[in-house]
Amino acid sequence: MIHIDISEQDKLQIVYERYNHPHPRVQQKMWVMHLKGLGKIPHELIAEITGVSPNTMRTYFKEYETGGIGKLKQINFYQPQSKLVEHKTSIEQYFRDNPSGRVRYNVLGAIDAVSHNLITVCNNGYINAQSVCELLLKIYKQNIDIPITIVLDNARYQRCELVENYAKELNIELLFLPSYSPHLNIIERLWKWVKKDCLYCKYYDKSVKFQKAIDNSLSKVSCPEYKETFDTLLNLKFQSYSKAHFITV
Fold it and tell me: H or E stretch including 172?
């Protein structure tokens, strides 16, 4: 085990750079250092969660030891210079004026069934097992004094060895619902409400506006003026099919 002393100030900057640095490689480095700074996670698990090899992880540790966060933010791999670089400004402006293609905005969330405290992980790429681990870590850092059980569906990125092992490491129980039973998960009601609140019959000419609208809808969960709405929406009454009639054909 490599011992590294990370100051509280550096820990805060590492968290900031993890989400705000423009280069994904630097974000990955910051994620590795953030998990290292927690002091409780084995190196093998850090490498598995972040998707880096043990040697690469140790390289990041050495970079921090020799040059701190500034060293971690350096990108040293070979980057051939394109002839289009001199036209960068005009090309960027063209695509701003003529947007096309699909822009993703993913929200992975967990909501407290009693307090309705909402915790989310958002990105513009894809939701995968690492995203779920990131959400588990956010929940763990809430310092809840009672045992934590998370109810979730059987999506592959959730029901996998990486997520299950990480949940055990954080002492979080994962309760997987039966297949085809979204009516038993109260957060599905929230996603349906968000779509109705900000997406149905509405057009956003910029992806930034689209993302902001979703964020604004999600922020309403903690607003006092919406308390009655969510107390009704997120109650603990669940639809049951025990008395349903089935006809065979």
Answer: strand 172-176
What confidence tier does 111 reach under pLDDT thresholds 50, 70, 90? very high
DSSP string spanning 34-95?
Answer: HHHHHS-S-HHHHHHHHT--HHHHHHHHHHHHHHHHHHHT---S--PPPTTGGGHHHHHHHH
* Angle formed by the axes of helices 207-219 and 187-198, nearest 10°: 130
Region for 53 from its dihedrals, namely left if φ exceeds 0, alpha if ψ lies in -120 to 50, beta otherwise: beta
- Name the domain count of the chain: 2
Cα dihedral sign, 118-121-126-130: negative
- 186-217 pLDDT tens trace: 999 999 999 999 998 888 888 899 999 999 99
Residue among 108, 117, 106, 150 nearest 234 (CA)? 117
226, part of any domain: yes
Whether 246 has a pLDDT exceeding 60, the answer reads no
State how far the Cα of 153 lies from the Cα of 176, in Å rounded to an integer: 5
Which residues touch 236 (CB under 8 Å, ≥6 apart)?
A: 113, 186
Whether residues 137 and 215 share a domain: the answer is yes
| Whether residue 151 is found in the same domain as residue 201 | yes
Q: What is the pTM of this model?
A: 0.58
Our measurement of the distance from residue 115's CA atom to the centroid of its chain's CA atoms, rounded to an integer in Å, reads 21
Residues 22 and 16: their CA atoms lie apart, in Å, by 11
